[in-house]
């Protein structure tokens, strides 16, 4: 404990606290001083806590400190069992609670500063679920979470850059390289200047180049202005379209703004929401839970090979086939026409399917409408940020100028009046000061006279009595006026109520009759609607049964028709084959040789003989080729060798001719030198 206090004192005597404590003075601090010291340490960690605890209640101080300690993740020494004692000690400034807390804070001040800084941006605000149903709140919350993630990434990058800084040697090398590059650029500029100075009229050419650059910049600015004007025109057209759309919506709202229609819409919306809450959403939730359970079960099982998957698929097909057979048997055993319950079940199933389909369509339409509204709001906000003021044209601009001139003259006139009033105010203010001074002097003289006469305070008491009597008379007069006004108002209200009752009596009587009639009509309408729904459901079930029967008969008819066509085609093929067989037998047993030659058997016999003769000739030719193959190959090789030999001789002959021609040229050159 002594080491702990000594560490606290040393840290408090250093920067940034500079308290100049010793062990005795620190130990003699009172509870309020200890709490203020703890608050100073917390204020160093988080600047929001730099406050004077004497200006706030102890409960507020404890709550503020506990919230910051929760963010800093401080755990009291006693654990979770002594949390109430820790809170009580923090409120009262107990030393056994404050000393360990100061020791913990001063040990890791830099780390806690960083944590408190991050907590300002990363402690998430909890939004209730009912508020998140609003699209605007949900979008803002989503944007808030995205910004929080972006801050996390940026902070990580910043920390990485701080830890992975460049060394001084690398920075020096970069600086020297940039200086060398700068010297090279200066030399290059000087060389270009010297080269340009040799050109005629170089100042004029430089001026022309400068003008060309300026014109290009002007062209870019004009193109940018043109694009901005196009954008302004586009935004103006969009504003016009929005205004027309708003006008149209307002017309529709005025037409449809009746209490009955509003009540009807509200009832429809309530019915739809109750259906979603009681039927649709619980069923979807149950299906999601089942699918999640099955998926977890699949994940928990070991990995399966393709053969296992094929076996499972075969098993599933078999089970489905068995289910279909059982359903068919059941349908054959219990005919739906004779069973009233089956008809009602079928009607209920049809109605529930229709209801689910319409609910899904309505939900999809609402989602689409909400997304369209969000897009419209987003586009509207973007347009409001980007659009400028409207440009006045023609008569509107002239009217605006005239109005501005009239306002200018009015402004000048009022300005002169203000100057006169200001001057008069200065005079009155000076007069007031002089009168106050005279009044004070007279009051002092009067006070001196009262002191001499022994009646000091008489004038002040008289003024107070006069003022109180004046106030009392004003209050009495005001009360009398108020009572008179209230009585008149009550009379008027009673008269108005009686008049309204008299005027509304026949209307109320008629309204009662109309309400009774409306109830009767509503009851009759509900009965007719129930009858209509039951009749429609019965007709729908009969129609679906007839449609299934007709569909089965049509399929059976199509199957029988296809069988008939197939059998007819097979019959024709067989007839053609039988006719060909008869003609073949007739030609084969005929005594006429010409007829027998036409038979297919004879034709195939002749073709077989021709092919056999051709095969014999080819085999003989193959035998001759095999016998003469060896000598022929030798002869080919001899001819190739002979060709190579003749080629070699030709090359030698050409080389000899070239050498002879070169010798003759050399001899002729020598003779020419001798002649010279």
TrEMBL record:
One of its GO terms (cellular component) is intraciliary transport particle B. Residues 3-126 form the IFT81 calponin homology domain. It is found in: Cytoplasm, Cytoskeleton, Cilium basal body. InterPro entries: IFT81, IFT81_CH, IFT81_N_sf. Keywords: Acetylation, Cell projection, Cilium, Cilium biogenesis/degradation, Coiled coil, Cytoplasm, Cytoskeleton, Differentiation, Phosphoprotein, Spermatogenesis. GO terms for biological process: cell differentiation; cilium assembly; intraciliary transport; spermatogenesis. GO terms for molecular function: tubulin binding. It holds the Pfam family IFT81_CH. Residues 137-246, 309-382, 504-591 form a coiled coil. PANTHER family: INTRAFLAGELLAR TRANSPORT PROTEIN 81 HOMOLOG. Component of the intraflagellar transport (IFT) complex B: together with IFT74, forms a tubulin-binding module that specifically mediates transport of tubulin within the cilium. Binds tubulin via its CH (calponin-homology)-like region. Required for ciliogenesis. Required for proper regulation of SHH signaling. Plays an important role during spermatogenesis by modulating the assembly and elongation of the sperm flagella. Belongs to the IFT81 family. This is Intraflagellar transport protein 81 homolog. It comes from Baryphthengus martii (Rufous motmot).
